UniProtKB/TrEMBL annotation:
Belongs to the nematode receptor-like protein srd family. The chain crosses the membrane at residues 14-36, 103-120, 132-153, 188-209, 239-265. It comes from Pristionchus entomophagus. This is G protein-coupled receptor. Its main location: membrane. The keyword Ion transport does not apply. Keywords: Membrane, Transmembrane, Transmembrane helix. It is a multi-pass membrane protein. GO terms for cellular component: membrane. It is found in: Membrane. InterPro entries: 7TM_GPCR_serpentine_rcpt_Srd, Nematode_rcpt-like_delta.
Amino acid sequence: MDAVLYRVGNLFPIIHSTVFTIGFCSNVALLLATFCKTPRTLQTYSIMIKFGTVNDLICVCCDFFTMQRMLVVPGNLLYLSAGPCSAISARACYLAYCMQLTTLVYSYYVMLASFAYRLFILHYESPKNSKVLIIMISACVPPIITGFAFTFAQADIEIVGNFLKNNAPKYLQEPGALSGHEGMTPQLIFTILFVIGTPGPVYAGVIVIRQKVLKKLKEFSNDMSVRTKRMHNNFVKALTIHALLPPVTIIGVALYLVLFFNLYYHATLEKAIYT
């Protein structure tokens, strides 16, 4: 088992690069499509797609830039970045990490807004572009404020080094840019709660809204053309598949718990948490 994980651990630069290449190309292609090939009937909804696509594009760029590994040491959150940012500074790695946290939270808001939009247009006319634009920008505010505040939670490298020296000196020999916090500070705990507390309410909203959309489609089925009904059904299916992707983060949480409670340890598991 250890031998297999060791080989996988050596492949993480390739894994990050592959994820980045797929994510970058597909998101750029989608962004170009929304600007050049969006039908007139979907112009308003394309605003939401653009926001979500730019958000995901930033996320994969941050992941490649940092190639971050979480060091599981009870009493603190520490990070070791092996990406291009490590050639710049630990601060650059940490700022990219804060930005990535912001995009992860905002992706949930985009998902919820997409379902809400489907329900809205079943009852009313399509909203104005300006209204959708204001909503999507407003949804950026909470994660951006939280991410910005989190940029001030980084501890000096000397403090992080001393913490590792006293609690996990093995990490001091690892290559990469090291960053972390001054223990479990209130600011750190708030950010953790904000990030892990967002998915629950969002998914509750998604489930409720999805059921309402399906119910309304069934009620209006006799008044809709076959083409319109198919379009709505396809959108709901696509959004449902999209909503199934973020829970993959549960795997990362499970890996962290395995390491935190010392059930099994391997450096590759630390690298896999964020990946």
